[in-house]
Amino acid sequence: MKLVYFALLAALPATANNPPNIQLLDQGVAVEVKSSNNSYFDETVIWQVLEGKGWKAAQDAAKDKPISDKLTEEIQYQSQLAALNTAMKSRNRSAASELLNKHPKWASCQRIQWAWLDLQHETRTGFGPNAQKKYRNIVNNCPQYSLSTTKKIMSWAPRSAKTQILALYRQSPGFKTADYSMLAYQLHLEQLAGNNKDTAIKKLVAKQAKNIKCPEGSELLAWQYLQDKDFSASLTWFDRAINWSRKPSQKLIEGKLLSLKGLERTDEYERFYNQWVKRYPKLKKQTPDAHSQLLASTCKSQPVACLKLLEKQPTLTPVQHSLAGWQWYNLQRPLTAKHSFEKALQGLPAGSEQHQNALYGYSLSLNRAGFQRQAETLASQLVNQEHKEMYAKQQASQAILNAYEHHNYQYVIEKSNLYEQQFGPEIGLTEIKGWAHYNQKQNTEAVQTFQHLVDAYPHDTKFRDALKTAQCAQKKSYKICH
Fold first, then answer.
1. What's the angle, vertex CA 437, arms to CA 454 and CA 410, rounded to 5?
2. Which residue, among 422, 351, 418, has the nearest Cα to 381 in the 3D structure?
């Protein structure tokens, strides 16, 4: 029988090794099959080793195994990536350059970690043309990595390049408005942390911090305002930072205490300190000195004594100038109060609570001193609604007093009635209205007005005498009354 030999090119199962002669189609043709040495190898286990234990373990596991080219390349890539990481961390720039130049094709979306290290290596000298090109290549060709790449390069590049980086990100296919806003906010925080005095940056940070309730931005703003001695603004931002923090730090609590001290709010300071000292036993107590405590308590009700204490100060702070202004105003010295408030306003940050308080006192002093137009202009800048209402009340009462001095009694009567409807009765104005009725020969109305005052204040001889005078005029019996 003639034998025909075939060499099979494909691998056969193990049971087919060295088969005997095979008869085909009953014609006595025998086929001899030679088994292949390239039998199938399952490399799944080595892939799992590579993923779980790293390239060295995978390399050992693959030794003398017929692994695929794909697995061989992946093990090589992982080993070279580890070497590049080591070179970058040790700042071995020549070794990093050699590895990067050896495998330029690995800087791709599929090998994004290699592309990131390549970009980081390029930014070591700044954000020049080559770094810009590599950044654009990633964000334009790998939109799924636009945000993560931008975050990374923002941490590598110099601060001067970050605005340009954001502009490039904005033009990329992976751009998202919300992500851009957050990146810009982080840049503004960094600029603010660098003691940036740009008011525009402050406004941007303040707006975003309020929108997202960010404790970090709020605290940065608080410390800047505290440094500027704008204690009212610093207190506001420390409060926000504390409220928006999961666990307020000791430093935050100390910042609020310093703000309260600056505002001389002693009682609130004590309450807040006692509230937090149990959590932070090392909390420093910024106790106001004895003079500050005496000044705070005296100025509440003793304007003359308060002014004497202020005179002993070598120099007055803007807040103390404002305090002096209020004392002079309460002593019916509007012109002197006006000068004190002017000095206060020169040193207080515009828009702060302290500035608004001084502006309110300044407006009242100007109005009382006869500078009505200037007072109205300044009063229009008041933000506090209560201050606005109090200024309107004082303005109305001053107009009535001025009219009385000019013997415009009918105006006094009409405006006093309107004043009482809007603000309620006031002793001094009610007395003036009574005398306006008297001078207008409206004796019945005068008697009624003074009778109200006597009923309310029966022991005040001044009101009893006024009522008696009005009653005599009403009865036209002056000789008997006097």
1. 140
2. 351
